[in-house]
Specification:
Residues 55-82 form a coiled coil. This protein has 83 residues and is mainly α. 67% of the residues lie in helices and 0% in strands. It is built from 3 helices and no strands.
Length: 83
């Protein structure tokens, strides 16, 4: 997370966006568990890595989830600054 205050996080979780934040967290965890282990690939032959594309797709989706999560929480960070 990009340094969100705990108050903003809790306000977001308790809002109408709470269920979506839980879904984001669940999907993120599921994707991390599905990531193929990169340690099994010898660094010198990375171009032969059969899972490279899969890892890139999963990491891109995780980045999207993080962006969505941060955008939701940021709304409540701004609410804190206003009042």
């Amino acid at each position: 997370m990009k340094g969100h205050s705990s108050k903003a996080i809790w306000r977001a979780v308790e809002s109408k966006h709470g269920a979506r934040l839980v879904d984001i967290a669940r999907e993120h965890i599921r994707l991390v568990k599905e990531l193929p282990d990169q340690r099994a690939v010898v660094q010198t032959v990375a171009e032969l890595d059969p899972h490279k594309d899969v890892r890139e797709i999963i990491r891109a989706r995780i980045a999207q989830l993080r962006d969505e999560r941060d955008a939701i929480i940021q709304q409540f960070e701004e609410d804190n600054a206003d009042g």
